[in-house]
Amino acid sequence: MNCFSNIWEHPKTSAAGLLIAVVTIASVLSQQGITLGAAGSGTVVTLVSGVASALLGLLAKDPTEPVNGAGSQQSKLGAWALIALLLPLPFIGGCSETTVAQNIVNWTPALQSAVASVDSAGALLAPPDTPVFTAATAGFDAASNLMVVQAKAYLANPSASTLAQMQNQIVVLQNQVNTALLEAARIVNPASQQHALATIQAVGTVVGAILTLVQSVSSKAEVEQMAAQSTVKMAAVRPYLNETPAAEIVAGHYGEPVVVARMQVARVEQSEVLAGF
């Protein structure tokens, strides 16, 4: 009987718990490719998740005058509801191909800017380290330019053939970035190494965001094929990554708090590892 009395006495907490469970289960179902049928341009799973997320957003509003006791509990409820609302976003499928294609294209200016920073970074390194850095990042310009072209082609015509080209190219770019990170980690000069890793990681952050978007419109078999083509895995480069600048890039792109972006970056990395990247 205690469980029923708790539900009666704490309806908001109980409702939030139920909605968090719905969003979590929907996220897992989407990752497994379970849709439960179509709903408009999306699926039943994403529709249910979207409604639950919207209700969580309403419950996440903190009291205007936080106090100890009930007010403090309400603040914690709002925080947990907001976290549950935001975390699954990069992994919930069902978005239209046009929307995903536009999101990918929206990332391309950041990709080009990050690669431009890499091109100019060699001059800031110690002279003995410049050749190592230049050789490690030599393919970035061509690969990123092709990625931009293919992203725009997919937006104009989201067909199976343009998607396949984009799938191949994003894996090529990811392999180049991860290989460059391993090469930059061999630089002995601490200042040179730090600057080299930071500039390469900026490219990698954008590439990771695009890879996640490409995965969202790819079938399970296609993702497995992409992962099989990924020769340098996330686990190999993870020790050389800094979450803070990556979160700042994501936060700036989406206009969201860094703390939220940090959680999203962590979830993206986890998703890539689980997918075999």
What report would you give on this structure?
The structure is a single chain. The protein has 277 residues and is an all-alpha fold. The chain has two domains: 2-91; 97-275. It has 13 helices and two strands. It has helices at residues 2-9, 11-31, 44-59, 70-86, 97-121, 130-136, 140-156, 160-184, 190-216, 220-229, 234-237, 243-254, 258-275; strands spanning 38-39, 42-43. Helix 7 runs antiparallel to helix 8 (160-184), helix 8 (160-184) packs antiparallel against helix 9 (190-216) and helix 12 packs across helix 13 (258-275). It is globular, with a radius of gyration of 21 Å. The N and C termini lie far apart (48 Å). Residues 60-94 have low confidence and may be disordered.
List keywords for this structure.
mainly alpha; two-stranded antiparallel sheet
Helical fraction equals over 70%
- β-strand amount: under 5%
Main sheet? 2 strands, antiparallel
Briefly note the structural class of the backbone. mainly alpha
- Which overall shape is indicated by the principal axes computed on the Cα atoms? globular
Q: Alpha-carbon distance between the termini?
A: 48 Å
- Please give the domain count: 2
